[in-house]
Amino acid sequence: MISVLTIFSSCQKAEEDVQPGDTTKTPILYTMPEESAVHEGTWLQWPHEYQYGITYRNRLDDTWVKMTQALVSGEKVHIIAYDEAEKERIIGLLSKAGVSISKVDFKIYPTDDVWVRDNGPIYVKDKNGKLVIEDWGFNGWGKKADAQNCNQIPSKIALDQNLPKVDLNQVMVNEGGAVEIDGNGTLMATKSAILNKNRNPGMSQAEAEAIFTKYLGVTNFIWLDGKAGLEITDMHIDGFARFANARTIVTMNEDDLLDWQVPEQDIQKLYAAKDKNGIPYQMVKLPLTQRNVVTAYGKKLDYKGSYVNYYIGNDQVLVPNYNDPNDAVANKIIQGLYPNRTVVGIDVRNLYANGGMIHCVTQQQPQ
Asked: Measured between alpha carbons, how far is 141 from 193 in angstroms, rounded to an integer?
């Protein structure tokens, strides 16, 4: 596992005397494009049998086939396969489904699991608009799961793509699903998933903000408390609140947020959120599923499904679906947000049994 330093020497000077909400003394070195900006491609880490067994893999394959099938019409799909045998198996699955692999790029890297949003590369632009890979620390959501292989993925991709890499492993542990950016200078996150002793012990809010300003180009922060220990991610923001664009937050109504166990004070903060110019965001509220989710293999889960965890591709928006009446309701609302893209419902029931949805297993590479 990686170790997290309490004092961040590379950022120390910029962070001196910085108070929460005041990042005027911090230089912006890199800016992260918003998810709906044009992609070169999307990264997927394909499920395999080497961590949780062949049944785990087989139950998830179809979701990855459907995501690839939807995305290849509009962008490249970069698939990380565990080994050469897995690559050949995946090619067979895609061929059987009629998916052209002309726009599929394979990389052979061992992985611990499928959650590329959290462990994968964060692509940013430098001051000259050149693409750079940021390699943030990943420690298995606070040392709850194996992370050694997955933590190496950004570094391997940077080497393969011959892109500059910024190594932040000793600066901050930060999963991609823990932060949302609006592409216009604002970051939204829960403290429980970042300012947590299992990720960044001793780090202050001011230190975190200075790091995010420097490396993601954000100066305005919407901090929710979240709820540590609720599930493996310690309440990632992308399960219940996302930026649809620079002016809009997609979330849920109050009752559904409470059902999701979002603290009441967080709900009020979320609904009152303002952008960097002090203008309130428009709120679009998606339902939860009507029923508790039942997997495709018949396992009854004791919780409902969120539609907020969708992914914006170049031509498509991949929306988690659950064989539930509210699938159509959520798909229609999301389609209204992206009139120039096509909403594609992806069955995530089996994946959801393992705690994640579409956004959790995708990672964009900007153009």
From this structure: 8
The angle, 0 to 180 degrees and rounded to 10, between the axes of the packed helices 84-96 and 54-71 is 60
Q: Are 360 and 117 in contact (CB under 8 A)?
A: yes
DSSP state of 20: T
Burial of 364 (0-12, 13-18, 19+ CB in 10 A): buried
Q: How far apart are CA 52 and CA 83, in angstroms?
A: 16
| Angle in degrees, CA 271, 222, 185, rounded to 5 | 115
Count the neighbouring beta carbons within 10 Å of the beta carbon of residue 264: 10
3-state secondary structure of 152: helix
Cβ distance 165 to 155 under 8 Å?
Answer: yes
Q: How far apart are CA 167 and CA 153, in angstroms?
A: 12
Mind listing the pLDDT tens digit of every residue in the chain (367 residues)?
A: 232 222 233 333 333 334 455 556 789 999 999 999 999 999 999 999 999 999 999 999 999 999 999 999 999 999 999 999 999 999 999 999 999 999 999 999 999 999 999 999 999 999 999 999 999 999 999 999 999 999 999 999 999 999 999 999 999 999 999 999 999 999 999 999 999 999 999 999 999 999 999 999 999 999 999 999 989 999 999 999 999 999 999 999 999 999 999 999 999 999 999 999 999 999 999 999 999 999 999 999 999 999 999 999 999 999 999 999 999 999 999 999 999 999 999 999 999 999 999 999 999 999 9
Q: For residues 334 and 183, what is the distance between their CA atoms, to the nearest angstrom?
A: 19
In degrees, rounded to 5, the angle at the alpha carbon of residue 134 between the alpha carbons of residues 121 and 237 is 65
- Strand intervals (E) in 226-326: 242-245, 248-251, 282-285, 311-312, 316-321
State how far the Cα of 163 lies from the Cα of 80, in Å rounded to an integer: 18
**Which neighbouring-strand residues pair with 221?**
187
What's domain 30-366's architecture? 5-stranded Propeller (3.75)
Would you say 335 and 360 are in contact if contact means Cβ atoms under 8 Å apart? no
Task: Say which residues have a Cβ less than 8 Å from residue 168's Cβ, sequence separation at least 6.
Answer: 134, 135, 136, 137, 174, 211, 215
Rounded CA-CA distance 80/90 in Å is 10
